[in-house]
Specification:
Length: 290
Amino acid sequence: MKIAFLGLGNMGTPMAANLAKAGHDVTGYDPATPMPAGVTGAISAAGAVQDAEVVITMLPNGAILRSVAAEVIPAMAPGAVLVDCSTVDVDSARAVAEQAAAAGLAALDAPVSGGVGGATAGTLTFMVGGPDAAFATALPLFEVMGQKAVHCGGPGAGQAAKICNNMILGVTMIATCEAFALADKLGLDRQKMFDVVSTSSGYSWTMNAYCPAPGVGPASPADNGYKPGFAAELMLKDLRLSQQAAGSADADTPMGALATLLYESFVEAEDGRGMDFSAMLPRFEKRSRG
Ligand code: NAD
C-alpha cells in the first residue's frame, strides 16, 4: 500500500519502519527528525500525502493535529483514508473527522497503547473510532504495527476509550502506590503485600503486571530506577485529556480530577518529570499525613 507517515518521533519512527519492513511504500514527513530505515523523505506534509492511499499521523497534540489535517486534507487523493494514531482530545478527533468528511474523505482516530516498546516490537493495541469501510482499509496496517485493533465506534470513540482506560490507570497507580507506602508504615513486608493483593480483590494491572515496588512482582520500571516506561508527564497529558473530555460531556469524575492534580504536582512542582509514572511510590514514601 502507498502510505504517508507524518510525525516520526519516538513512536512514529518505529511504526513507520515496521510498515516499510513489511513491504509497504512509505513516504514520511517530520520537520525535526531523520527518516527511519526504508522510509522516503518528503519536503512537506502536503507533498508526502499526494498519492497515498492511507495517511497516518503520530503527532504531539490536538492543536498540531488540527493544523496538519488542515494542510493535508486538501492535498489527499480521492478515496484516501486519514488515520490519526496520536493521543489527542476527543473534540479535535471529531473536528478532523468532520473536516475529512466535508472533503469526501474518511478519517479514523486510532490512538495506541503499548508505548515505544510496543511500537518497536509491532505489538501495539489500536483503539479505533470512525466508519467501518475506513477501518477495513486500515486494518492490515494495524496488524503490522500492532497485535490488536478494536473498532470502538464512530468518530472520537478511539480517543474516548484511550482516555477512559488511562484515567483508570492513573487512579489505580496512585491507589497502589499509596497503599504500599501505608503498608511500609504499618510494618508490612512489601513482598507479603504483593503476595496477598495480587491474588485478592485489590489486584490490578498496576499491582500484578507493573508493580511500583522495586524487586517485587515481574520486572518493571521500578527495577530500573523508575526510568520510563511510561513517563509521568505522558500520564499527566492523558489525565488532562480525560478531564477536558469530562468537562465537555458534563461527566462527574472526582477520582480522575484528583489523580490529575497529584500528577500535575508530581511533574511540575516535585521531581517527577522524566520519571516513570510508577515513581509515585517513592513520592508517597517520603511524605507524611500533614
Ligand atoms: P514525539 O514528540 O517523540 O513525536 C512527535 C513528532 O511529531 C516529533 O518528531 C515532531 O517533530 C513531529 N511533528 C510536530 N509537528 C509536526 C508537523 N507539523 N508535521 C509533521 N510532524 C510534526 O512524541 P511520541 O512519543 O512519538 O508521541 C506521539 C503521540 O503518541 C503523542 O500524541 C503521544 O501522546 C502518543 N503516545 C505516546 C506514547 C509513548 O510512550 N511515547 C504512548 C502512547 C501514545
